[in-house]
Amino acid sequence: MRNLEAIVILWNIAVLGWVLVGKEKKERGLVISLGISVIVILLQGILEGMRWQLIPAYALAVVPLYMLVRARLPWSTLPKSSKSSVMKRIIGRIAAVIYAFVAVALPILLPVFTFSEPTGVYKVGTTSYEWTDATREETFTSKDGDKRKLKIQIWYPANKDSKGEISPYVQDGALLAEGYHRLLDMPKQLFNSIRYVKTHSLEDVDISDQEAAYPVLIFSHGLNGHKNQNTFQIEEIASHGYIVVGIDHTYNSTVSQFSDGTVTYFTPGQDETVAMMDQTNKIWVEDAKFVLDQVEKLAAHDPDHRFTGRMDLQRIGMFGHSFGGATSTQMLMSDPRIKAALNMDGVLYGKLRVPEGGFNKPFLMMSADQSRYFEQYIQDPALTASLTDLFKRYDHITDGGNYWLTLRNMSHMGFSDLYLTSPLFEWMGGISLKKSHPIINAYTLDFFNHFLKQEPLKLLDQNIGEHTLFTLEKGEK
Length: 477
Hints:
The chain has helices at about 5-20, 25-45, 55-60, 60-70, 80-110, 175-185, 230-240, 275-300, 325-335, 370, 380-385, 390, 425-430, 435-455, and strands spanning about 125-135, 145-160, 165-170, 200-205, 215-220, 245-250, 255, 265, 310-320, 340-345, 365-370, 405, 465, 470-475. Helix 1 (about 5-20) runs antiparallel to helix 2, helix 1 (about 5-20) runs antiparallel to helix 5 (about 80-110) and helix 8 crosses helix 9. It starts with a helix and ends with a strand. The radius of gyration is 27 Å and the shape is elongated. By secondary structure, it is of the alpha/beta class. The strands form two sheets. It has a twelve-stranded mixed β-sheet, with helices on both faces.
């Protein structure tokens, strides 16, 4: 809950309580309380933005106005039976308590969520690009000559004294709310608070001059996700001295918005068989390879002079969630530019298989226990048989001394920002983002710091085994 929202709610509930139980309610006090209510509501609306979740709290400002008007009505001084008056007071107070509960609960259950302050030595800058792959036809449209176009956002280290506009979470929160409505079949009003979410990133500021060049990480979202969906993680990584390049996989993202006004929403495939998912993953791998090509061009000559010579192309890694995790795994095997990869709860879709002996490159698998062991809950033997090939793809995932981190009491979407939109998601899934997100961030940094920056491992080798919140495995070399 934002600061002024809390003030509006607490003040108006206090006024309601005073009206209900206060012994003396003079006209002057009612006028003052009404004036304060109006002022704080106006300030909140101007500085933070009004939203429908606060309508019950806003409406409480009418209480002192109602009392002022009622006191002037001719029948307000008529005698009332004591029995009737007591009963009305009891009913009124019960109704007021229920109403006050709703006024508090709505903005808590549907908050304007915030991100933890990044812990690195750098501030975080961000900028966006639109890149078109002239060599590839867009397969999700029927228009001849329609080329594959991608929206890209880059986060990077900025100086501690950098100043600039704070970047919103997404370019247009209303479009993302519409995207979630289409995907989840839930009212988009439940997600309209996203438009007010701010990040810790500063728009288009200079890159920090503390280091000559910074390692680069490519981020790939989940199927139906979007490039900003792991802001909790991306800002933390960038604050520790990485350039993170996020990809919107057009037509497979929640929504992608381009400067020419084009808006594309998620377009489902004809089916979700393993073969079809493998085929779709090929498109994502091609997206990632194309983005890497553009990153190389940007490092050689950035028209804005921000990234020229500042991207260390000898230290490139990739990470992703779900289908993006699968893409990161395929890129590790297929593109020599990727030196290390992290897969967050991604089924191993794609053309290539993990060879016996492992990748011969650093790899970290992160899984939710609810995802990793879901086959235990399958009741249909035919379905289990159909997934046998998919399960076999994990046989050599830790070979060669690689790692597999399994988080306890964790679900698939807990690896993204989605559950931040309402604590109801956490309560229903039995998970705690306050516990899981710091673990994800800490092990992500430990992994890339070691294999891209040659820093000593602080967590991975030291914590092999069973723990309260996770299990960590390491394969044989």
